[in-house]
Fold these 2 entries.
Entry 1:
Amino acid sequence: MSDNDSRPEDEADVLLQTKPKTKRPPMYKVMLLNDDYTPMEFVITILERFFQIGHSQATEIMLTVHKKGLAVVGVFHHEIAETKVTQVMTFARKHQHPLQCVMEKE
Ligand code: TYC
């Protein structure tokens, strides 16, 4: 029998092999939360500046947060998500707005 002839028992072994472990890293949703005080225009500016979202989509997302209480604004690897949250929170605090931005594992 040549080297590359497969026998039935070899095929069974192949079927039982575990998947190669190339797990994707977990992804994180970054969300904005509604509040009663942060100006709508300020939230739109945040979405444009830190998430590269265009004005009309930024307006839609801001209104979704305003009406529903929160919205996902993007999904990122852990370090990027943390950076976004920090940028938003730092900018909001600098302008004395109570806006909250949080991240959550998908
Ligand atoms: N609710 C705010 C207002 O009426 C607007 C707002 C939208 C605040 C989204 C936070 O994440 C937010 N001025």
Entry 2:
Amino acid sequence: MRQVDIIIKKRDNIELSKEEIKFMIDGYTKGDIPDYQMSAFLMAIYFNGMTDNEVFYLTESMMNSGDVLDLSQIDGIKVDKHSTGGVGDKTTLVVAPICASLGVKVAKMSGRGLGHTGGTLDKLESIPGYDINLTEEEFINQVNTINAAVMGQTKKLAPADKLLYSLRDVTGTVPSIPLIASSIMSKKLAAGADAIVLDVKVGAGAFMKTKEEALKLARLMVSIGNKFNKKMTAILTNMDEPLGMAVGNSLEVIEAINTLNGKGPKDLNELCILAAADLILEAKKAKDMDEAISLAKRQIENKEALMAFAKMVEAQKGDKSYILDINKFEMPKYTIPVEATKDGYVEKIDALAIGNAAMYLGAGRQKIEDNIDHSVGIVLSKKVGDKVNKGEAIAFMYSNKANNELEYDMILKAYNIGNNKVNPKLILDIVK
Ligand code: URA
């Protein structure tokens, strides 16, 4: 087999075999196939797409490029969740504790934030002491004892994806449905859970800009998971505005804690209850979705989910007193209101621009090796559908920099204020 022949076949839109795809992935992971050939291959996939069989073989080869976790030592049904990447998305910090408090086993590996999207690991690390580096044995023991662990992805998990993602990032081949589906699913399958809920974001702040594209991606990922005997659900959610009010690491942890205290923003609360209920049902802790939803809500009301979060933080060497008292989180030097320049209703908030403004304030990184400031970010005070008066604060910037003109302007421009009172819908569809 020669790589150039496989590239030509893909260029000419002829279906590749399992062996040919495996040859490309194994060869690239070992360093036998150079970047220029893999770049051409990725671009051919970008333009010609892939058949379902090709995506399945690609996912399988990427999954098998490293370790596949064996979670059989954990009793019961293991669950996991994944979001395709959004702004203000702190759902894991709420969903995992709700599930754990009901005895659902949450074994989750998360990533860091890049660009305008935040990462769960960065958020967790804003809790002093929180250790994201567990060994496989520690991870399994923790899930067995307190039902939940959220750790960093190990280097040995789907290494082909790490290499391919870096190459896609610099070759214009990230926004390809087969490449996104295989990237996400190879990692999820290697992480070993039995049931997976996927949050597929749709809108300006997401990879998928339209509901049609997002549905295609969701159906593809669900079918890949099903082929590997995983119980799959994909929830399509609106990313035409940030999720919740807070964007930035400790600000988002605070919002997650408020949600676990029953005081969360409406949209965040709605999504967390739905995602948790799906996993509760898949883990057979409820007889139907109605009961699963009631249980999820009850665990917030009785503070059991909050206690489960404190337990998880403590188990991973974090200071749990922060979970019980949010005033302990360090606040940055400056809190700056961003004021509306006219009267009207918020019609749209560009989530991508808000995510980028938070990144420039220091909450996110442009390159994976950049340092971040956990304390800074943005808290929106107006969401889509809200009425605003000229001069009123639409958002607050939390910053350690004296000069924040650029970020101020970005936030102001991210808000579309007009005469129409829009009623935003968060949950756009569910694919099973
Ligand atoms: N998230 C991933 O893990 N991979 C992609 O390709 C896109 C989003």
